[in-house]
C-alpha cells in the first residue's frame, strides 16, 4: 500500500506561487500518493496544473450545506466541480482561530461524504491534555463527536497533536504509532490514519517506517520545494 503525503499549504502561498509550486512538484518522480491542499483561490489553477498527473487535490474546509445564504463559506458542489477529491476538516487552526467545534465538524463531514468528497478529519490533544495523561480520552471524544453517524470507510484521520503543529517539536514516531493503533482499533474499519505536526525532510522517514502510520499531513515543509520533493519521492 502506497503511503500518502498530504501537502497542507494553509494560507502560506499566493495563488500564483501555489500554481508554480504545483507545476514543479508534478515533474518529481514520486513513489507515494500525493495530495495537495492549496487555499480556495488556488484550487482551480492548481487543479488545472496537476490534471495530467496522478497528484490529487484537496480543499482545506467545506460548508455543511448546499448553496445558500452562508457568507464566507464554500460549497461541496463547487469543490467537486474543481475536481477536489478530499477535504481537510477540523484542523486545529480552524478550531483555535475560527471557533469551529467537533459538532460543526461532524456536520461538515456528513455533507462532504454525501457529496462524494473524502474527509481528512483532524484530531489532536493539546499540551496540557498530553501532560495530564488524558490524551487518549480527548482523542476518543473528538473522534466520537466528529464521526457521529459517519461511515468510517469513507474518511481518513489525521492525528495532529496540537503542541506539535508548526512548533518544530514533532511527536516521537513510536508514540505516534501507538496512538494510531488505538485510533484504528477504535474505528475498526481499516480507516487510514496520517500523522501531522512538524514533519520535515529530516524526520519523515521515521514516521513512514511505522506500521500504523499510513501517511503524513505536512504543513510548513510542504511549501519548501527542496523538502517536499524529497518527502514525496
Ligand atoms: P506543520 O503543520 O507541518 O507545519 O507542523 C501540519 C498541519 O498543520 O497540518
| Percent of sequence in beta strands | 15-25%
Ends apart, CA distance between termini: 15 Å
Strand order of the largest sheet: 1-2-3-4-5-6-7-8
Helix content: 40-55%
Q: Roughly what is the average pLDDT, rounded to an integer?
A: 97
Bound molecules: 2-phosphoglycolic acid
Q: Tally the beta strands.
A: 8
Please tell me about this protein's structure:
This protein has 233 residues and is an alpha/beta fold. It is 40% helix and 16% strand. The chain contains 10 helices and 8 strands. It has helices at 15-26, 40-50, 76-81, 92-98, 102-114, 127-131, 135-146, 173-187, 204-208, 225-232; strands at 4-8, 33-37, 56-59, 86-89, 118-123, 156-159, 192-196, 215-218. Strands 1-2-3-4-5-6-7-8 form an 8-stranded parallel β-barrel, surrounded by 5 helices. Strand 1 (4-8), helix 1 and strand 2 (33-37) form a beta-alpha-beta unit. Helix 5 packs across helix 7 (135-146) and helix 7 crosses helix 8. The longest helix is centred in the C-terminal third of the chain and has 15 residues, at 173-187. The protein is globular, with a radius of gyration of 16 Å. The two termini are 15 Å apart. The model has no long low-confidence stretch (mean pLDDT 97). The structure holds 2-phosphoglycolic acid.
Amino acid at each position: 500500500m502506497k503511503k500518502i503525503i498530504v501537502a497542507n499549504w494553509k494560507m502560506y502561498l499566493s495563488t500564483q506561487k501555489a500554481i508554480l509550486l504545483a507545476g514543479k512538484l508534478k515533474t518529481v518522480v514520486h513513489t507515494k500518493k500525493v495530495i495537495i491542499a492549496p487555499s480556495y483561490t488556488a484550487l482551480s489553477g492548481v487543479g488545472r496544473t496537476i490534471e495530467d498527473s496522478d497528484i490529487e487535490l484537496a480543499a482545506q474546509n467545506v460548508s455543511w450545506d448546499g448553496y445558500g445564504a452562508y457568507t464566507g463559506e464554500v460549497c461541496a458542489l463547487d469543490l467537486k466541480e474543481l475536481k477536489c477529491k478530499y477535504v481537510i476538516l477540523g484542523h486545529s487552526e480552524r478550531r483555535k482561530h475560527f471557533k469551529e467545534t467537533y459538532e460543526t465538524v461532524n456536520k461538515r463531514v456528513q455533507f462532504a461524504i454525501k457529496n462524494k468528497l473524502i474527509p481528512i478529519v483532524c484530531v489532536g490533544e493539546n499540551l496540557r491534555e498530553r501532560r495530564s495523561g488524558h490524551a487518549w480520552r480527548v482523542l476518543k471524544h473528538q473522534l466520537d463527536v466528529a464521526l457521529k453517524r459517519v461511515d468510517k470507510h469513507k474518511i481518513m484521520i489525521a492525528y495532529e497533536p496540537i503542541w506539535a503543529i508548526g512548533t518544530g517539536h514533532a511527536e516521537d514516531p513510536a508514540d505516534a504509532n501507538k496512538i494510531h493503533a488505538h485510533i484504528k482499533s477504535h474505528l475498526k474499519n481499516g480507516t487510514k490514519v496520517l500523522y501531522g505536526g512538524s514533519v520535515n525532510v529530516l524526520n519523515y522517514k521515521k514516521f513512514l517506517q511505522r506500521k500504523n502510520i499510513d501517511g503524513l499531513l505536512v504543513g510548513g515543509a510542504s511549501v519548501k520545494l527542496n523538502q517536499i520533493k524529497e518527502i514525496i519521492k
